[in-house]
Design a protein that fits this description.
alpha+beta; two-stranded antiparallel sheet; two-stranded antiparallel ribbon; 1 helix
Length: about 90
Amino acid sequence: MNAGIVCVRIVTARDVVLLQVPLRIVHRDPPQSVHNQSIYHIYHRGDVAKLQILLEFGGIYLDYDVIVVNSLDPLRRYDATLGKSRLTSTV
């Protein structure tokens, strides 16, 4: 299977909306190096592959545990945007 539909659940203040979003699956071999430096750990290969795919196709990548509370539209005007995690105090 190289194409299909994925359902995305969007929760707003008033509603829960299910959207059907077209999905295209592209197989790639994991990158072996970056700038002639070998990549040894599979996790790093995945990180590099995600960046390469974003550079080629554009878009927004979010980890599965990210909760979006504001629109991402203001970020779309930039070529690239990186988030920064904040540590929260449990005191």
